[in-house]
Amino acid sequence: MRKIIFTVLIFASALIQVKAQSVFTTVPVVNGKVVFQQFIHIDQGLTADQRYALLYKWGKDNYAGNPLLSGIRFDDKAKSITVGSKIELLLPQDSNGVREKVIMNYRFDATITNAGCMLVVRDITYQNDQSPKSSLFPKTFTAEETITSTAISAVSGLDKEFKTNTQKSTLFYLNELYNNLSKIFNLDK
């Protein structure tokens, strides 16, 4: 009986932890643009310089030397980094059993504040050169015309599946980015 209770408690805590890590669940539109923003609380025992040192190291470790990196800028005075990069997203399987890949281009800023770190992801575009559906979509398309609820509800069939799957993969990746960045500030975990 103890093993069952212990297993249930472990499983429940894992579910709660997984749920807490999905901070991006919808696609926010600000002034007509898709902009994802999330604040990361940081232990107040760290000074602003210590926080920025962690952010700087994380930026170097995760992006310097990355062949998909477009650019990285460190601003020591503002205690921020700006990264332009790409990632290949593997979309969920569609109704025909096809798993497409798209390249997502994005830019993000991570800025140290008094209470934590502000993450802002913006300027998202996609490239889909390899798909048999590429005739349905331009080779480069914006997040605004692809992953917003308005864009998805405006189409049907395979177009809707493609946009929905692109949205799911984008949200998954951005949650991974958030979780990866959050971990550097949680020294006790």
Brief synopsis:
This protein has 189 residues and is α+β, with helices and mostly antiparallel strands. It has helices at 2-20, 48-63, 149-153, 157-185, and strands at residues 29-30, 33-34, 36-41, 69-75, 80-90, 101-112, 116-127, 140-142. Residues 44-127 form the DUF4468 domain.
The span between the termini is 30 Å
Q: What CATH architecture would you give?
A: 2-Layer Sandwich
Q: Which structural class matches the secondary elements?
A: alpha+beta
- Count of extended strands: 8
CATH fold title: Alpha-D-Glucose-1,6-Bisphosphate, Chain A, domain 4
What is the CATH domain class? Alpha Beta
Largest sheet: 6 strands, antiparallel
In terms of DSSP E residues, the strand content is 25-35%
Number of domains: 1
Low-confidence stretches: 1-20
Q: Encode the helix/strand succession as letters.
A: HEEEHEEEEEHH
Shape: elongated
What is the helical fraction, as a range of percent?
25-40%
| Average pLDDT score | 85
Domain DUF4468: 44-127
Pfam families: DUF4468
Organism: bioreactor metagenome
Protein name: DUF4468 domain-containing protein
